[in-house]
Amino acid sequence: MMNWNNRATRAIQDQVLSQNEKLKRIQDTLKAIKLHQHGDIQSAVSLLNKKMDNLSTNVQQLTSNLQQVPDQVNNNLQAQIQQSVRVVSERSEKKVIDSIQTINEKVNTLCFFVSEIEQHFPALTTAVSKIESSQSDKSSISSSSQGPQSRLVQ
């Protein structure tokens, strides 16, 4: 019976260690994702800023060229340029927002799994403590019960 309890305790301890290792890996992954997410957002914002700077430069260049054209053509071209700038800006913003949403969904999924593991972790720890306590109680009972029997035999 004692051997079975030792095996059960060892199995539960192994499970706790395994869960601890999984929790550690998930926490490390979450840290990496958060850093990666932060880097992705910064990269996306930086890229968007560069595109906006390029667009601004192109608009300035086109505006200077337009000063040489009659007013009607100038007005039409300026409207087309502004529309093009709006379209490119909206597309870039959409891509950045989509990337951020995808990363947030992945982080939320990992957070869910971490919370599930954390919820079950105390139960495993409690079970190990109860088994260890039960074993120590049984060993003290068996040693006290063996005492008088050994006296009788003598």
TrEMBL record:
| Ranges of biased composition (kind: Low complexity) | 132-146
Q: Region Disordered: which residues?
A: 132-154
Protein name per Swiss-Prot or TrEMBL: Uncharacterized protein
Q: What is the lineage of its organism?
A: Eukaryota, Viridiplantae, Streptophyta, Embryophyta, Tracheophyta
